[in-house]
Design a protein that fits this description.
The chain is of the alpha/beta class. The chain has a single domain, classed as NAD(P)-binding Rossmann-like Domain (Rossmann fold), CATH 3.40.50.720. Helix content is 44%, strand content 15%. The protein is built from eight helices and seven strands; from the N terminus they run βαβαβαβαβαβαααβ. α1 crosses α8. The radius of gyration is 17 Å and the shape is globular. The structure holds NADP nicotinamide-adenine-dinucleotide phosphate. NADP nicotinamide-adenine-dinucleotide phosphate (NAP) binds next to α1, β2 and α4.
Length: 253
């Protein structure tokens, strides 16, 4: 799978939250394609470790930024423009979840989940959209979740935020189509990363989830990264406003 080829050489791709997990996998594949890659995260140590693991080099820039903070997002894009002079693709990959019920949740926690998923994706997409509109070219891909279309008790706020990102995807696709900018989303089922480790590392929960997935396993980061690269590439020039399910067939049941 690692040898698949996409026409992404020299393309400048900003990945939010690329210091580990799915974003890190996407960054590694993109660097292998000769793309120029920007990753971000809140923790400097995570970024330093990721840069080392990705082999560093002139094609990689790591920026410490919280995507729900407007000043941080401005700095992320300013540093990208200063270093690479343009931006071809934005991958909205950051997401976080805290298990909480809607009726009992504190407003501050509700806002934190909506901020890190939906508001951060809005801030980054708005910034990238303005730059891409000038260039009359670009692609935005957001990682959502199967939770956007399946109401699950105590996981619902995350699902509500991800559903918002899917609608944001469709709206942006409409608003930016005449500027030759394609906007799409990828909705995975459970992926083996730190994010969902409390679930997949528990054999009972793991087996329950696998029973809902026709292909009989949870996803690996590469299962999500490859379709993301496709949607970033010119092979996807005529696809916009879509959410691609990467869920081993779970949503087709
Ligand atoms: N893993 C799954 O089962 C699964 C399933 C469906 C969808 N997804 C979605 O896939 C995406 C990636 O998830 P993952 O599993 O790779 O997560 P992960 O392993 O927790 O990695 C998250 C990355 O985002 C960064 N990050 C988190 N909050 C941030 C913020 N506010 N600002 C900037 N960076 C931030 C983290 O670095 P710092 O901690 O240093 O900030 C890290 O680099 C998310 O949108 C998630 O909702 C995951």
């Amino acid at each position: 799978m690692k040898n698949l080829s996409y026409d992404l050489e020299d393309k400048v791709v900003v990945i939010t939250g690329g210091s580990r997990g799915i974003g890190f996998e996407i960054a590694g594949l993109l660097l292998g394609q000769g793309a120029r890659v920007v990753i971000c995260g809140r923790k400097q140590q995570g970024l330093d470790d990721a840069v080392k693991a990705l082999g560093g080099g002139d094609n990689l820039l790591a920026v410490s930024a919280h995507i729900a903070k407007e000043d941080d997002v401005d700095r992320l894009f300013t540093q990208t423009m200063d270093r690479f002079g343009t931006i071809d693709v934005l991958v909205n990959n950051v997401g976080m979840n805290i298990v909480a019920g809607v009726v009992d949740v504190d407003f501050s926690l509700w806002k934190k989940i909506i901020d890190s998923n939906l508001n951060g994706t809005f801030l980054c997409s708005r910034k990238a959209g303005r730059i891409m509109r000038e260039r009359k070219k670009g692609k935005i891909v957001s990682i959502t979740s199967i939770a956007a279309t399946r109401a699950a008790p105590f996981m619902g706020i995350y699902g509500i935020a991800k559903a918002g990102i899917q609608m944001l995807t469709r709206v942006l696709a409409q608003e930016l189509a005449s500027f030759n900018i394609q906007v799409n989303a990828i909705a995975p089922c459970m992926v083996r990363t730190t994010f969902s480790q409390p679930f997949w590392s528990n054999p009972e929960i793991h087996d329950q989830i696998v029973k809902t997935i026709p292909l009989g396993r949870i996803a690996e980061p590469a299962d999500v990264a490859h379709p993301t690269l496709f949607l970033c590439s010119s092979g996807a020039d005529f696809i916009t406003g879509q959410t691609l399910m990467v869920d081993g067939g779970a949503s087709a049941v």
